Structures are given as C-alpha cells and as structure tokens.
C-alpha cells in the first residue's frame, strides 16, 4: 500500500509506541525522539517517490501526443516509466522490500543516535518496526471510515473538503488513534 505524507507522523508514532511496548527495546530518551527520527526517514522516502512521480508525469506530458496517437494506456505507461526510473531516484517499488529498508534505516539511525538499546537480535527489533508500519497501514482505512461515520452523525452537516471538515476529521482521527493505542 502506498504511504502518503500525512500518514508519516502516525506511522512514526506507532513505531515508537510498539518499540516501547515490545518489552525487548529500551528507549533511552523517550518516545518523542524515536518518533521524530522515524517520521523524518519515512517522509524522506515518501518525498523521493513523489519526486519520481513528478518526473514521470513530466515525461508523459512531454509525450502526450505520441501516447494518444498510439492509444497507449496512460496508467500503464506511467507504471513502466516509473519502474524504469525508480533505481535512479532510489525508490524501491516493492512495498514489502521498501518497508523492510525503512525499518533498517530507522533501526540503524536510532542505534547510532543512542536512542535505543536492546539485547535481542537486530532482526527482531527490525521486525517490531516493520510490523508497526504494516499494522498501521492495514488499519488506517478502518480508522478513516470510523471517523467519517462520526462526522456523518454530527447534527450540523460538514462539507467534505472544507477547512472545518478537515480540522474536525484530523481531531477525530487523532482521538481514534489514541483510543487504539497508536498515538502518543
């Protein structure tokens, strides 16, 4: 599943909480520094993919006439060009491999910054991080649906996309994450 920039802080918080609750990892300076490092690394990865996709869009726009003339499906062409340029941009397209790579980077950075200690295998710690990412991504759609249902039950109807709707959605989303133990 594709990770979007607004999800980075939530995933980072989930990583920090799961590391704390793992029972095998000691957080030397608390949750916030761990979440901050995780968020920065996740955002960096997302931004690399965004830059890649922008470049792919530019290439397709430059060749729009040819694409139309040959009746090529733009989405298929997008994927082919993205696949071809991914290595150049440092983007791993397989989500499983990508989340594993992010997990390694988070673990390495946290260890180098002396933010964590552990006495189990490095792979076990990496798996805590990887599982946190997977767990968040598998549950966020359910959380969004729950929040949308709560907003639908408001007496005053909010218009999706409005500033007020977005503010209420964000507040309720954060509350739902806290209720599920996924937020600081």
Extract low-pLDDT stretches.
none
| Share of β-strand residues | under 5%
Average pLDDT score: 92
The gross shape turns out to be flat
The radius of gyration computed from the alpha-carbon positions, rounded to a whole number of angstroms, is 20 Å
Largest sheet: 2 strands, antiparallel
Distance between the termini: 24 Å
Structural class: mainly alpha
List the helices and strands and how they pair.
Blueprint: H1 8-21, E1 25-27, H2 31-62, H3 64-69, H4 74-89, H5 95-112, E2 116-118, H6 122-152, H7 163-179
Antiparallel strand pairs: 1-2
Helix pairs in contact: 1-2, 1-6, 2-4, 2-5, 5-6, 6-7
Question: Describe it for me?
Answer:
- With 184 residues, the protein is mainly alpha-helical.
- It has one domain.
- Helix content is 73%, strand content 3%.
- It is built from 7 helices and 2 strands.
- Strands 1-2 form a two-stranded antiparallel sheet.
- Helix 5 (95-112) crosses helix 6 (122-152).
In short, what is this structure?
This protein has 184 residues and is mainly alpha-helical. Helix content is 73%, strand content 3%.
